[in-house]
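Can anyone check this?
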Amino acid sequence: KATWGLSAMTIIPFSVLFIFGGKIFSIVFGAEWTTAGNYCQILAPWLFFVFINKPSAQVLIVKQELKFVFFLMVFSILLRVIAMLTGYYLYQSVVACLILFSAAGVITISINIRYAFMSCNK
């Protein structure tokens, strides 16, 4: 319930950042911050999932699903490193690195949330 509540509460602010991040940053902080706003747009989906994942992560600890948590963390780190290296070496682009990093984070956190829901329904 907490994960769904956090999702409902923050989907609009994170969506606004995802769509208008560059413009918001340039208006609030000045034109020289547009690039930072663009990076924020790319990272917004991952940050949304990081925010809503907290209750699910705690559920897995309480339910003693530590083996799964460990392997998911290892998988997450490996996937993020591969994403960053792919973005750097294959695409030679900061934007590609951030997109792949964000996607890797969304994937692993989605797995974590799904597993927590399944664990609670046992």
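Reply from J.R.: I decoded it. Helices lie at 2-29, 34-62, 66-90, 94-120.
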